Amino acid sequence: MENLLTTALVVALVLHVLMVAVAVWRVWRGENVIDRLIGVELVSTLFLAILVLVSLILRESIYIDIALVLGALGFVGTIALAKYVADEQVF
Hints:
Layout: H1 2-28, H2 33-58, H3 62-87
Helix pairs in contact: 1-2, 2-3
């Protein structure tokens, strides 16, 4: 049963890496700034999911802590970029 769970986690990890590749392509070839900003947010979210999957596969809890910190930093960064795009000034 444990082997089946590990296999499912590895398949989910591979799918998430493929989704990151598609999202990075969208950031690279985005039509406007808003599309690119949403793509960066998607890449950040998928990267956090990858860290959680790696944590489950390797059974190391440090990756979940790193994912929480990166999630908080990503949220603040997204808010700052959205404010800059809307007002063209940060403060």
